[in-house]
Amino acid sequence: MNRAPRKYANYIPIRELEVVEHQLLPFQVYAELRENTPVRYDNHRECWDVFRYEDVQYVLKNPKLFSSERDRANASMLTTDPPKHKQLRDLVNQAFTPRAIEALAPRIQEIADELLTPHFSEGHMRLIDDLATPLPVIVIAELIGVPASDRQKFKDWSDALVKGARDDSDEAFQELMEEKKRNQQELASYFTTIIEERRQRPEEDLISLLLAAEIEGEKLTAEEVVGFCILLLAAGNETTTNLITNAVRILSEQPELQQQLREHPELIPTAVEETLRYYPPIVAIGRIAKENVELNGQTIQAGEQVISWVGSANRDNAQFAQAEKFVPDRKPNRHMGFGFGIHFCLGAPLARLEARVVLQTMLRQMEDIQLVPETVLQPIQSAFVFGVKEYPIQFTSSINSKAI
């Protein structure tokens, strides 16, 4: 008898967050779980949930105990363990040096200006549709070497990559997995065509660089290049879209921060870090136990799924003073908004740069940024991404404001 495919727990919503209000602000729920059941087994999702900072960090920094490997057919850096993971990461790192990323700053500023300028005279904009989605899509498209004209396709694919089940039923999970499979096939076909073109005619882009790169005489296979492009699409687009949106959401919820950052623009980089702690784009990361492990008095069996709730860990008072408060100059800030350990987000410098440029530009040109009144926020349908579907804002255009 064939066993049904195992559910990947990070796609299934937890029952404590069934209510929309809790999805929009899950942090009080996290606090109760962190206090009452810091490591608990969820029978319905068939996984362990880990909520405290110390335990989450332990899981993420121990790949020998907690594996990232899930699907050998779709291997990427996100779903492989050492030594394969290091080999893939070393190859890709050649394109993601700090100098290479910082060199993108003028182009990112140009894109931000192009997207924002038409709205300054209007005094309102749809933050996600007009800026937070297209900016990272254009940057990633140019970086990888694909037409920015395909940005709507990219957005649709990115949404599907992080989508969660509509509820915790078996039917919803099956429906989701079928949609993800179709999505993966479309993406693989799309990138395979471009890879074949670059094999014939290399260009100054990431796909050409990845096809040419070698470490110890070994090159990436076409499947590995496809896997990386898909990973970059999801991580580079969805994460940055939600980082930008969540940062502006905080500014509109706490308007005093807007003036503080205008008067002290040198705090913008640390405010981006605090956004990653306070409203992190990714709130949960999945692993598989490779052997029996005891964690906080609970025994996790080999083969069981473990979900590390970084969104909870980032609000742990044992690690962060005034954890429930947004502190724009917080130092040190050992948040895990980009993960932790060997799978720390490769695109973190790019996401930070994009968020920094956007906040600088918006604060330079806009005052009194607010969520449009009467807006009913809707959470993204995902069990591991924290964000909203739409965030329309209104503002007063700055005149003769000093440059940031």
TrEMBL record:
Keywords: Heme, Iron, Metal-binding, Monooxygenase, Oxidoreductase. The keyword Heme applies. PANTHER family: CYTOCHROME P450 YJIB-RELATED, P450, PUTATIVE (EUROFUNG)-RELATED. The keyword Coiled coil does not apply. It comes from Paenibacillus taichungensis. Belongs to the cytochrome P450 family. Coiled coil: none annotated. PROSITE patterns: CYTOCHROME_P450. It holds the Pfam family p450. This is Cytochrome P450.
